[in-house]
Amino acid sequence: MRRSWRSTASPFLTGVGLLAVWEAASRLGAVSPFLLPAPSAVLAELVRQAPLLLPHLGATLLSGLGGFLVGVFLGVGLALVLDAFPRLRAALYPFLVISQTIPIIFLYPLFLIWFGYGLTSKLMVVVLVCFFPVIVSLLDGLASVDPELLDLFASMRAGWWQTFWLVRFPAALPSLFSGLTVSATYSIMGAVIGEWLGAPRGLGVYMLRAYKTFSTARVFAAILVVVVASLVVVYLVKLVSRLAMPWRARRETVTGPSRNAGDRTHMRSVP
């Protein structure tokens, strides 16, 4: 309990200290409020702009969460297929890596031509940024199962499904949720990038309009909303991970955050 309190209090106090320095620097004239408005001014602007920001936030959440779910579904499905067929994995994996070397801003004009300025183009951006962390993390998790556990189940004449469901998949869950956490962080950011490049509404559109009017306080207010929305999505993924891996949550409660290697020793009891 004491370790948990310290791990929470340390970043909170650091954040409060940085905000205090920022506020003081702005109020004392060390930096121009036009270039770097004080946190209190950003918060006041956020309150004033709330009625206008809410519809944009709704559009961003719709594309961010929708693309995240589609990306997770495709990533998990393709990872399971590639794990079941090693030759197919050897043939396709290099192309998956190459696909991530193409900047999204180069692909988005094509999405606009193919799908227009609607929701589909933004969904495609979010799917692309969320898809890769999920498939790589799950493939690595499935490939890093303790060989002694696999030998044990082989000696017990366990079938492919029993070995997968009772050993390999539980052992891969920590890696999978690490990838899901990264994807959750990228989901809102991907939606904002898509809106910035071309969309009728969303936080990216709001930020673009604020930037064109040189309203730095409104840009910071939109950034704050993006950060909070991303943290909420990450928190939901963490909550699901605690429900899916109760043994890990109990271990962290007693000994603090665990390493993935320790999770690989977990397996379900054989019925």
Automatic annotation (TrEMBL):
<keyword id="KW-1003">Cell membrane</keyword>
<keyword id="KW-0813">Transport</keyword>
<comment type="similarity">
    <text>Belongs to the binding-protein-dependent transport system permease family.</text>
</comment>
<keyword id="KW-1133">Transmembrane helix</keyword>
<keyword id="KW-0812">Transmembrane</keyword>
<feature type="transmembrane region" description="Helical">
    <location>
        <begin position="53"/>
        <end position="81"/>
    </location>
</feature>
<dbReference type="Pfam" id="PF00528">
    <property type="entry name" value="BPD_transp_1"/>
</dbReference>
<protein>
    <submittedName>
        <fullName>Transporter</fullName>
    </submittedName>
</protein>
<feature type="transmembrane region" description="Helical">
    <location>
        <begin position="93"/>
        <end position="117"/>
    </location>
</feature>
<feature type="transmembrane region" description="Helical">
    <location>
        <begin position="166"/>
        <end position="199"/>
    </location>
</feature>
<dbReference type="InterPro" id="IPR035906">
    <property type="entry name" value="MetI-like_sf"/>
</dbReference>
<dbReference type="InterPro" id="IPR000515">
    <property type="entry name" value="MetI-like"/>
</dbReference>
<feature type="transmembrane region" description="Helical">
    <location>
        <begin position="123"/>
        <end position="145"/>
    </location>
</feature>
<feature type="domain" description="ABC transmembrane type-1">
    <location>
        <begin position="57"/>
        <end position="237"/>
    </location>
</feature>
<keyword id="KW-0472">Membrane</keyword>
<dbReference type="GO" id="GO:0055085">
    <property type="term" value="P:transmembrane transport"/>
</dbReference>
<dbReference type="GO" id="GO:0005886">
    <property type="term" value="C:plasma membrane"/>
</dbReference>
<feature type="transmembrane region" description="Helical">
    <location>
        <begin position="219"/>
        <end position="241"/>
    </location>
</feature>
